[in-house]
Amino acid sequence: MAQGLTEQDDGVLALRASEGDGPAFGEIVRRYQAQIFRLCRRYVGSGDAEDIAQEAFVKAFLNVKRFDTSRPLSPWLLTIARRLCIDRLRQRKARPSSDDEPEALPTQATAEADTASKETIVLLQGALKELPEGQREAVMLFHVEELAYKDIAAVLDVPMGTVMTWLHRARAQLRQKLGDEHPAAKKLSMGVET
Amino acid sequence: MSHLEPSRIAELSRGQAAGLAGDDERSHLEGCDECRAALRRDQALGQALRAVPAPMPSASFVALAQARFAAARRAHDVRRRVIASVGAAALTLSTLLVAATAGLVASKQLVLFVALRIKDAVVALDLASTLLGRNPIVPVVAALVCVTTLVLSMGAIARLARAPAEAK
Predict the structure, then answer these.
(1) Partner B contacted by A168 (CB < 8 A)
(2) Does residue B108 share a domain with residue B43?
(3) ipTM value greater than 0.85
(4) Which residues in chain A are closer than 8 Å to B30, comparing Cβ atoms?
(5) How far is CA A25 from CA A12, A32, A34, A56, B66, in A?
(6) What is the pTM (predicted TM-score) of this model?
(7) Residue B1 within any structural domain of the chain
């Protein structure tokens, strides 16, 4: 059964979850937990991130009839999660997690971490914290979560032009902090087939 | 071909995720040092951003979310049933009160009137329960209408009951 679920597409699973199918709901959570958790963590810090991320999944699937199944699921989940994060921040009347201490580097290096040195990563973490919230979120949703411009606009509840402007400014600021000649840049080759 | 838009270069920097460059874009990139350099810069930035440590949720995350979902669904179902029951009860009660009011006015037709109103109530409840699955607001509206009817009926009964006493 579990093997069958992993092969189902999001739309089918969403429909089953809306009818109370626990395993289908679990499969969707498994697919998107990391993405939703990361967003929550960026907004509210590590303390509340799991709680809000779970709440986002629950809320999404209690109201799944509002979801347009022709659209990708992740922007919809991210939108709900972001709204819950903002509500929580309002409740606390505190600032987002940018004031938190930086995360310790993972002991297991990712493929990207092999390319970008630890030094670059630390530098980048600092530079990200200096970005305004909207710019930071836009750049993470674009480069890390790989959302389309229109989906980022929906998640952040701003026009697409604003997303483009934020991304342009964020990239410029990050590059300025890192310097165009940082080690990761030197090691990279063209990613597009020519 | 003029230079590629920065937003397009940024999309291309994600490689497969945004689809490969079209023929025009590909040939432009081959011949344009400026766009190629911009693409490399965006790729480098994306790679560095993806290398930033991304903590994962705990191992129990999925199980806890499932438990919360099951509990929330149960609560949601109970709420819907309560709303439907209250709506149905209010509708029946108000129908009977309307019948009783009418009975005071025209007691000869009371039996027939009650029978007709009960039939109407059954039809209305059937309709409400059909619509319930599509739109949960329907029973809420039905309940509000019934409660309003109930209050108006009670007012009418009170007035009718007072009228003979005042006449005396």
Answers:
(1) yes
(2) no
(3) no
(4) 194
(5) 11, 11, 15, 12, 7
(6) 0.67
(7) no
